[in-house]
């Protein structure tokens, strides 16, 4: 399983090239000439996005037709490129009704103005004032959008458009996301509370409540060979605790397969379970700890305690930066200026260290009052990392609190039988925690390996939510 990661597809992007018929008589063939330019842009972005190049937009009907095609093809976003100057009133209606994330690429065919330029060259490269007119239309429409002003083709242009494209993929996936909640959310946990109607109106994620009884029935109906096959994959991927009985492993495997089957049937890309909702049902032997870890590794968003906001941001982390890991801050370690990151037993094993096996252990757990839940135990891979927390501020106001830093190559904690690591924020634990708490950062969050604050900032701009870096 550890080597079975399915690589996330590249973002799918439509290129909307804008010009106008004014120049046809002056420069015969200009439309074909600039269409070829748009195709070269797409070719330069092949490593970061699958680009669909629309026909050059020369009027309102062209623009509306092109965007409808992008939407019908379920693309992730639209990259707007000025092929020449184009009057914005011809695309104003499109931007007022735009459903896909947008980036305005403020570029031109030639990066240098030279004495050899004639009026044809001036016309080919005059996109900058078309970009100003077009951006003004987007602002008036209240459309969130990103802007990239760069030379093309260049590494900087590819990097910035790639960052926007990944953010567009995450935002578009969010708009279609359903988060399954098995049972209910933890009583009294205020930072996970939100207005469901505001969430779906503003951001898109929808809550789908799934009864624990449905999980129990699904587990019982699973065929034995499917259960055995999952256990075989675990044997190949993990170091399995010899103390785990066949009954314990089969019950865990049935929980994982049952949860995934229900997520597929309900159309959910993320989910959350609460230990009380499982324990109080009375029909389950143990909590689905290892299931959460492996389902995260397969690309599902997850959070504990019925926390929909955290499950949604883990889902976004998968699409934005890959391998979203659900975690929380457990304790501060002042001598190393770091924070111990862990949770009750759920964590994405794709972020585990490469030099240690992921262990499937028999793990006593008093919470929930059930039998020992098989749990995946690992330490987080040392190196750069980023944490992000989705905050509901009331109504349709949301904020993302983000911190970059480093997972330390830190001490072992032999008594901690759940995924863990020590995260040292770039701003130090004092500065980070002061900022985190002032911004209302929640106690559940997503961690991604690597420095991804810039990606999250673009994501927030496209989702029209606040961004706070601490």
From TrEMBL:
For this protein, the record's InterPro entries field holds: Ara_Isoase_C, AraA_central, AraA_N, AraA_N_sf, Fuc/Ara_isomerase_C, Fucose_isomerase_N/cen_sf, Lara_isomerase
Top-level taxon of origin: Bacteria
Gene Ontology molecular-function annotations: isomerase activity
Ranges annotated as spanning the membrane: none
Q: What UniProt keywords apply to this chain's record, in alphabetical order?
A: Arabinose catabolism, Carbohydrate metabolism, Isomerase, Manganese, Metal-binding
Can you give the residue ranges of the L-arabinose isomerase central domain? 182-320
Q: Name one Pfam family in it.
A: AraA_central
Cross-referenced Gene3D superfamilies, in alphabetical order?
A: 3.40.50.10940
CDD domains, sorted: L-fuc_L-ara-isomerases
User: For the L-arabinose isomerase N-terminal domain, which residue ranges apply?
Assistant: 25-174
The L-arabinose isomerase C-terminal domain covers which part of the protein? 324-465
Please give the PANTHER family that the UniProt record associates with this protein. L-ARABINOSE ISOMERASE (PTHR38464)
- Report the protein name in the record: Arabinose isomerase
Q: Which species expresses this protein natively?
A: Nocardiopsis sediminis
């Amino acid at each position: 399983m550890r080597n079975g990661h399915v690589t996330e597809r590249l973002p799918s992007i439509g290129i909307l090239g804008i010009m106008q018929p004014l120049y046809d008589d002056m420069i015969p063939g200009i439309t074909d000439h600039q269409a070829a330019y748009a195709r070269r842009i797409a070719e330069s972005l092949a490593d970061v996005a699958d680009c669909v190049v629309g026909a050059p937009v020369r009027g309102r009907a062209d623009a509306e037709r092109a965007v409808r095609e992008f939407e019908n093809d379920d693309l992730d976003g639209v990259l707007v490129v000025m092929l020449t100057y184009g009057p914005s009133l011809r695309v104003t209606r499109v931007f007022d009704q735009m459903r896909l994330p947008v980036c305005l690429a403020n570029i031109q065919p030639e990066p240098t103005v030279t004495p050899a330029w004639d009026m044809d060259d001036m016309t080919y490269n005059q996109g900058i004032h078309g970009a100003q007119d077009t951006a003004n239309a987007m602002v008036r429409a209240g459309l969130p959008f990103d802007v990239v002003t760069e030379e093309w083709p260049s590494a900087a242009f590819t990097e910035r458009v790639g960052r926007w494209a990944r953010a567009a993929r995450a935002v578009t996936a969010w708009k279609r996301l359903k988060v399954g909640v098995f049972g209910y959310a933890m009583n009294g946990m205020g930072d996970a509370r939100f207005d469901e109607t505001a969430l779906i109106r503003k951001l898109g994620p929808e809550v789908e409540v799934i009864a624990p009884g449905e999980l129990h029935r699904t587990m019982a109906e699973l065929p034995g060979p499917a259960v055995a096959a999952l256990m075989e994959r675990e044997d190949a991927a993990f170091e399995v605790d010899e103390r785990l009985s066949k009954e314990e492993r089969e019950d865990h495997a049935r929980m994982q397969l049952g949860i995934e089957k229900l997520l597929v049937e309900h159309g959910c890309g993320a989910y959350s379970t609460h230990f009380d909702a499982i324990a109080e049902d009375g029909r389950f032997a143990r909590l689905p700890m290892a299931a959460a870890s492996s389902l995260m590794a397969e690309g599902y968003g997850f959070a504990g305690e019925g926390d929909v906001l955290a499950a949604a941001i883990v889902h976004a982390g998968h699409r934005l930066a890959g391998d979203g890991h659900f975690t929380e801050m457990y304790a501060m370690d002042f001598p190393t200026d770091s924070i111990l990151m862990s949770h009750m037993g759920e964590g994405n094993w794709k972020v585990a260290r490469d030099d240690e096996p992921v262990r499937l252990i028999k793990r006593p757990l008093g919470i929930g009052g059930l039998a020992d839940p098989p749990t995946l135990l690992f330490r987080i891979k040392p190196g750069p990392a980023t944490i992000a927390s989705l905050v509901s501020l009331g109504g349709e106001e949301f904020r993302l609190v983000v911190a970059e830093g480093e997972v330390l190559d830190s001490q072992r904690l032999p008594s901690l039988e759940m995924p863990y690591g020590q995260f040292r924020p770039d701003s130090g634990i004092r500065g980070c925690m002061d900022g985190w708490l002032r911004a209302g950062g929640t106690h559940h969050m997503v961690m991604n390996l690597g420095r991804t604050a810039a990606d999250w900032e673009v994501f927030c701009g496209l989702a029209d939510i606040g961004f706070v870096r601490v």
